[in-house]
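Training component of the fellowship. As part of building independent skills, the fellow (R.M.) carried out the full modelling exercise for a liganded target. The chosen ligand was zinc ion. The inputs are recorded below so that the supervisory panel can assess the work.
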Amino acid sequence: MWGCRGSLPAPSPDTVRYGGNTSCVELNVDEDIVIVLDAGSGIRPLGRILAVHRPQAIHVLLTHLHLDHLQGLAFFLPFWSDDIELHIWGPSSPNYSLATRVASYVSPPLFPVHLSDVPSRPIFHDVPDEPWMIGSALVARYPVVHQGPTLGFRVTADDRTLAYIPDHEPSLGVDLRQLEPDWISGYRVAEGADVLLHDSQYSGEEYGSHAGWGHSSIDHAVSFARAAQVERLLMFHHDPGHTDMELESLRDEAQSLWTGRQSPVLAAEGMTLRLEQAEVSIDPPAEAAETLAMTE
Ligand SMILES: [Zn+2]
Ligand SMILES: [Zn+2]
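Fellow's submitted model of the complex:
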């Protein structure tokens, strides 16, 4: 987990436990292929490690093009390497290609170099409608309720499934507890997943003044996860204004609402999830920090 902050990087002495970098999750299924979910500012430190380990191919999957999910791409070392195969997948648009839309950020005046001059010459793909394979991982994408075209990703390998919906407002205009699961936005992404990384941006009180902004309250995240019958909820896309202590009180609230077996936890930068064992295990951030230090 390289970044789990929402909206804007939030480095501060008050955010060290859960981290200030925006959305980026590395998935390791095959030896030589790395899947990266979103290119928020967390992709920058990941790039330092991948530049040393040099996988055969890197596949970056973008849920959508809001800056907090894209801003790290131009600072990702493999982006500047001409001998790593770099694929970038994202939502399609009837008007502009994915490359054209990414270039609106990676080009002057917002960035000094134009996308067409980037040495890696990334291969851009609109995500297909049907599930597809990346190495031995089966990837499926479904549109979810947020501002603008946005996807949730469901990745399955070795019978284990991770669902990733960082930006999501499934409760917009509806009561999740009253709705048939099939009618809930994102249900097909998360249904029965071993782990769900889900938008948990607001407290219930904050949501009142942010309805329609595209994000969930803690209550919504828990209701969604329960409706989708996921094994484990990881609270993700932390509000940039929330300190570590405030996040922990939101986690306590989520745990008090949870009726499943394994209580919700806060996603933290540097955390590692292991899905290959019978039960999902979570390694705390310290190990990743050590790995990063070793590359220096
Ligand atoms: Zn976001
Ligand atoms: Zn967004």
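The panel noted the following from the submitted structure. The chain has a mean pLDDT of 94. Residues 148 and 295 are 38 Å apart (CA to CA).
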